[in-house]
Amino acid sequence: MKRITAITEAPAMPSEPAHPRAIEPAVQSIKAEPGVLVHTAADRRLAAGHWLLAAHASPRFARTQWQTHGVALLPLGALFSAIRIPGRLVQAVVASTDPCDIDAVLDETLGGGPVICDVHGPRYYALVPASVPRTWRQAVEDWQAHEVACLGHGAYLGVPRPDAVEFPLHRGGSYWSVPVESVGSLCKPLAVARLIAAGVHELDENREPWPVDAPLTPRHGAPDGTVRE
């Protein structure tokens, strides 16, 4: 079966299946005390999943892609756009190839804004407001020299299912480096721009350790199942 990659430019989308199946169990909100409604993490993630699927013309079909492939191709430029950042820029900022280190720094640096990691790059996709490709046009042109791209109308992003929040040790693909935890939660463009600028600066100062996008190497295990010292 052909793997759905993290980014595909304007593919032809297949028709909706006859009987799509939901992948998320029904989650009930709980009440901590009378009159106080508490939303669990699973509850928020379920709502965020519905919001992500709303980007697709056929949310039921996109949900079936999650069920079948673990990744759904969602069109960009309507609900959100994405800034693609090569792994070497992020690795240079964090000074590590350990996904745990990188994920923690991205979470803090981008204020919890959602980020998808394509392990095969590695490449990172920061979800940003849909208007960014237009309103940040000059910055986007400047970023191209560093292989950073701002993806909007005309591109589809391979979006992992909301519960794919762990680095895949025994298979490739994509996962949420920083999960989307609430409806409409996106990265602030200025925070992403500062991250990119920091990565460019680090590479200019000391490129030798990060000449290419190095494979991600978990401290306690590698994608092939081996354990690092």
Sum up the structure in keywords.
disordered N terminus; disordered C terminus; single chain; 229 residues; alpha+beta
Short characterization:
The chain has helices spanning 41-53, 59-69, 87-94, 99-109, 132-135, 137-143, 189-205, and strands at residues 7-8, 30-33, 36-38, 71-75, 81-86, 115-118, 123-128, 149-151, 156-160, 174-178.
Notes on the protein architecture:
The longest helix has 17 residues, at 189-205. This protein has seven helices and ten strands. Helix 3 crosses helix 7. It is of the alpha+beta class and 229 residues long. Residues 1-33 and 222-229 have low confidence and may be disordered. The chain is globular.
Beta-strand segment tally: 10
Q: Please tell me how large the radius of gyration is.
A: 18 Å
Our estimate of the beta-strand percent is: 15-25%
Largest sheet: 5 strands, antiparallel
How large is the count of helical segments? Answer: 7
Spatial order of strands in the largest sheet = 8-5-7-6-10
What value does the average pLDDT take?
82
Order of helices and strands: EEEHHEEHHEEHHEEEH
Q: List segments where confidence is low: pLDDT < 50 over at least 5 consecutive residues.
A: 1-33, 222-229
Q: Measure the end-to-end span.
A: 35 Å
Overall body shape: globular
Q: Helix- and strand-based class?
A: alpha+beta
Helix content: 25-40%
Draw up the topology in text.
Blueprint: E1 7-8, E2 30-33, E3 36-38, H1 41-53, H2 59-69, E4 71-75, E5 81-86, H3 87-94, H4 99-109, E6 115-118, E7 123-128, H5 132-135, H6 137-143, E8 149-151, E9 156-160, E10 174-178, H7 189-205
Antiparallel strand pairs: 1-9, 2-3, 4-9, 5-7, 5-8, 6-7, 6-10
